[in-house]
Batch of 2 targets.
Target 1
Amino acid sequence: MSSRDQILAAVKQHQPEASVLPSLEGLSGNMPGTLEAYRKVLEGLGGSLFEIKDESEIPALLAEHYPHLQRIIRVGDEQRAWINEDPHLLEDVDMAVVPGQWGVAENGAIWLTEAEIPVRVLPFICQHLAIVLPAGRLLPTMHEAYEKIGAPQTGFGVFIAGPSKTADIEQSLVLGAHGAKSLVVFITAG
Amino acid sequence: MNRQTADHATLADKFNEDEPRVDWHDQTLWWVRAKRDKMAWSIPEWEQLRETASAIKLNALGNLHDYLVQFEQQAIQNGAIVHWAADAEEHNQIVTGILKKHGVRHLVKSKSMLTEECHLNPHLMANGIEVIDTDLGERIVQLAKEPPSHIVLPCIHKKKEEIGELFHEHLGTPAGNADPQFLTAAARQHLRKEFLQAKAAITGVNFAVAETGEMVVCTNEGNADMGAHLADVHIACMGIEKIIPQRKHLGVFLRLLARSATGQPITTYSSHFRQPRPGQELHIVLVDNGRSRQLGREDFRNSLKCIRCGACMNTCPVYRRSGGHSYHTAVAGPIGAILAPNLDMKDYADLPFASTLCGSCSNVCPVKIDIHQQLYKWRQVLVKEGYTTAAKTASMKAMSGVLSTPAVYRTAGKMGRWVMRAFPGMVNNRLNPWYKQREMPAPPKQSFSQWYEKNKKS
């Protein structure tokens, strides 16, 4: 008997009587899905937030707050050569500006997928990350987020909440472990 | 990373030789526990969430056979290659086989307690394959040639000065620099090089969804993603109990996991791996290694609900003062003490006794595992099966005789109180473990029964 069959047989023999799945109703409570609630949590995670009218304001804001950026990749830009490059070459990207699908107020997380970001490693390998999210896409909790996301449409998706961080050295919080050292969220009107 | 042979009490004694360090360890973990409380209390539905998570896991265990088959089907459809390993050895062979097939001699690994449980690193080294742990805490203990002492905070037992020294020796940072910010930046540079060179990446799995065949991996550092998205081969290793039924259930677990673990609202990255990226190979290794056996132990099967948050360790008065290494097993603390005897009753017979049974672990567990009750039940199993020391078995038997015969109990109590008054030296000496680090209490003049007889109102 293969290990597979052996494991499955043992599991079948030993598993307890099947119980029904619980309902997920009411778990969200009265958590607010507002921009203010989202901003508070995001800033607590070390991220920053700008409310803008539309994406055209982004270059000026980046120039003001990140004056030393050399290589910037903006997903949706006309320059698309990077998509076909070896992903390892994205190592020198200083700032990636990527679109988010949904934001979650209770924990600051934003859902991104490879439908919008064709190179998976981009939001991790860049030194700094900016996510653009329309204001109408903020939700109170993870339950609403999974409801909206629904069945998977892509091979990879990720919730990102704040910049990369670690507290492994004596529980001292340090931003910028392996992923982006900082995160800025641009909330567009609409 | 040799298997230690000394028992918990001996190893805890060693840890306790440095009292200021024990106090520091204790306080650091309690601080993490306090952060967890703050997060839990900020969510009015917290208890309902725990209840729901526990019920989802119970459903998963009750349908595990079907969910595993469904997960496998979905994963294959997604383009993954699925392997099954009955035990640690088979797991290690499968992983080594994949790496050899691709000629990989150098790879990166993100945190996976399963690979610790299987002792994968020494196995790979013996096969001439270099593995770099990329979680900062894990990299630190790897450089120190130690196993992790905590499942979420692998080097919680290390002082920053010791880490500074390790980095000076291995990464060439200036001697004497122990600044966490500086050391983290040095590790970032060092590990970026590793990510960029590695042809294969191993990750653990936090949750595997039967419905979709996807796996969710949670990190704060981004190391799982840096590894998996750059390597040609991604190997995800998971215990069979990581299965959850549906995607929407992730909402419940992701709300609980990081809040329970470190008091964060969620980890920075919650990555959903479903398909390999074009040109990449995705392998999933499903490991039993005793889990199907634990599933059959009615009193202990709930331990398989564990989502590895570490809350039970942070709150445990014994763990905080004895250190993770005293448990001499990959998963330390209260949960480790109920998982390990399933793997080997003889080697881990000491662990269920490394507890005060205070129940704090059960109170903070996000999936409501009855941890302290299982510890108590393991003790009975281990004594009955003859895995405890002769002295412990004899004293338990004597105690049981005394407690089950009221007349003997009364006489023994009277004698005990008299001895403590007449010959305090009989109990206030080094042979009595209860006397260590504390004075014995003054013996009461009468027993509770005598007091009750005198004071009861008819």
Target 2
Amino acid sequence: MLRSLWTLIRRDVSLIVMRRQDVLTVVAFFILVITLFPLSIGPEPDKLRTLAPGGVWVAAALASLISLDRLFADDWRDGTLEQVALSPQPLAVAALAKVAAHWFSLGLPLVVLSPALGYSLGLEGAELLVLALSLLLGTPVLSLLGAVGAALTLGVRAGGALMALLILPLYAPVLILGAGAVSEAMFDSAYTAHLSLLGAMLAVAVPLVPVAIAGALRIALD
Amino acid sequence: MHAQTDTAQPPATLQAQRLACRRGDEQLFSGVGFTLEPGELLFVRGRNGSGKTTLLRTLCGLSEPAVGTIHWQGQPIRRLDDETRRQLLFIGHRDAVKEELTPLENLRIHLGLRNENTDEETAWDALQRAGLQGREEVPVRYLSQGQRRRTALARLLVSQARLWILDEPLTALDRRAVAWLFERIAEHLEVGGMVVTTSHQSIDGLPEPRILDLD
Amino acid sequence: MTARSIPWLKFTAPPNFYVLAERLTPWLWGVAALFLVAGLYVGFFVAPPDYQQGNSYRIMFIHVPAAWMGMFLYLLMALYGAIFLIWRIKMADVMARAIAPTGALMTFLSLWTGALWGAPTWGTYWVWDARLTSTLILLFLFLGYIALHAASDDREKGGRAASLLAIIGAVNVPIIYFSVEWWYNLHQGVSVMRADGPSMAPSMLAALLLMTVAFWVYSAAIVLRRAQSETLSREARKEWAQQAACGRLTRDTRERAVAQAQQENAVSESGGQA
């Protein structure tokens, strides 16, 4: 089983590397959304600083959403998904492998970039660390939840917009905790509670959400 | 319907009972039943839209029939254990060939997914025999439709599965490739394999099939 | 397997359900109207004005039942979705789909009346209060279900996808609710929603209960009615549905249709045990 999962992860990563413009598009989108904040609010550092945690987190959530749009679509269209469903390992585990590959190639760059963007909005020192840490714990949950939406909207009219409607409400708790952690750090209060809750969410999501993804994929394949 | 004998080993048969499938609100077919024994070839015939593809996808457990059951080696098709699942190979209308990758990579990924242990040598050999010599490392995007199809069919050469379910395997194949495929199917049947297939083209040259008419 | 012999499953056969709904709905409409009139009368003429809010609090008699109904209907919809996914009873999907618009309406109504209540009480139509925010998210969950169900060309497939979404949403509703609550408390300290004091005049309580019953029964009636028309459109090609659409469904046709449906089930079941 490990071998087939490794095959799947490696294949997905190498396909994404081949289409590296996709990674660039998502990263550029992430940066652009953050650029919109100073442009729309004004350059005053104080204002920007208060908005920074939410701004970076909203941008990350949107970037995660648009990057997940095609997570299963290509494999569904060319029949690979059928082969994955018929292969010996459980579909839920295969789904987890695909989400992991996706997160490594498209989610992790956002996490790595986030301190720089946080800095540009006026966050400092430990706050940047908390920002990166909260994204590190939170974006995998976003990827998992988004993958459910991507699977549910396979082969459906108006997939992208519909996916946003289905998934963004489910993003709310992660966003609250993630942005909350950074805000707490700004007021020098205890942000560990937020981070632990985010970690708990991740720990619950990793075994459970793939089952839902697999269910949605089976419906799409039927 | 064949009488079943009680043996410790589950019979290596594909059994379908009273299948009915629907697409949307439309009933495609009903009352389809058969038992496919080792060495048998089942040819599904029907006009466009009669549900051939749906039946084949149902037989390998992707779609769920509205009515009826399917058993492969005595296990319900949607609850196969890993080993039994590996005994089934499906090549669908959409052939799961990635355009960005080369035939060799495609084949390797296929093997990796199914967790089948085949060395490099066999993979190269299979692609050669499938008529892709010299094209093993050209991305499929630059190959013709027929060569793309051959990439998919090369799986038959490395497969250890007993049951092949092939949806329209002849599409886009030239005469030589068709002859090659028929030969390969005949070999598979001889060693006790089973094949379910459909085609709109002539199947002269295949061993005598059992015919299932959906019309 | 044994579940199929339980009598209440009789109504999973569409013709039986149709006839049951046909018989029930007039009564339900009547009861709903009765309770609505009684509730509005007690609410507007019997219950005393609030010592702080005067008469504006009376919108609570619509607001609170609507909010309860919205939450309850979402859970009920998810439950029907689960029944559909597990036992493949098609009527469960019909019911879930019939519930969704009413649930969305109730949720919207509770937001709307909440805004109208908020304006005189604390001077604004909208605050990002914990309850308002999570109700808004609930509304989006309903809309997502409706949109996903409608987006698929295949009704069966769309129903299964939407049912799965409803279940995921139902698991998430408490998480969303608590995280929003927590978020709000961190930002605001004390909730402004604590306007209704601990003591409530008995007539106020009576009006609230009457209105709640009215909302329940109204929801049941409208959901059954919608499920009826959905059943007819799904079974449009069958004889019983065509007769029923003209209002001339005979007992004979219905029994034949039920027998046929049961036969189909029996086939798939005996196959399942073979």
